[in-house]
Design goal:
CATH superfamily: Tetratricopeptide repeat domain
Number of domains: 1
Order of helices and strands: HHHHH
Distance between the termini: 36 Å
Shape: flat
Radius of gyration: 14 Å
Low-confidence stretches: none
Strand content: under 5%
Number of strands: 0
CATH topology: Serine Threonine Protein Phosphatase 5, Tetratricopeptide repeat
Number of helices: 5
């Protein structure tokens, strides 16, 4: 996916989420879009919100675990000086 396609899809999702900000499915879609684009901090925020809204969403919990592992690996020096 190129940058322009990412921006178009993101704008569409943002518009839909603004209308229904508690829609776990839309937040999940946006989180996956962010994750594919490498915007892991925003992806994690969306997945955390999904897990809060839908306590039984196993997919969101798996993404959260994966992204936290990525952060722990990438930023280990920040956390363990």
């Amino acid at each position: 996916m190129d940058q322009k396609e990412f921006e178009i899809k993101l704008a569409e999702l943002n518009t839909r989420i603004a209308e229904k900000n508690d829609d776990a499915q839309l937040l999940m879609q946006r989180g996956k879009l962010y994750q594919k684009a490498g915007v892991n901090d925003k992806a994690l925020n969306d997945f955390l919100k999904v897990a809060e809204l839908d306590l039984e969403n196993e997919e969101a919990r798996e993404y959260i675990k994966m992204l936290r592992n990525i952060f722990a690996f990438r930023y280990m020096d920040y956390y363990n000086p």
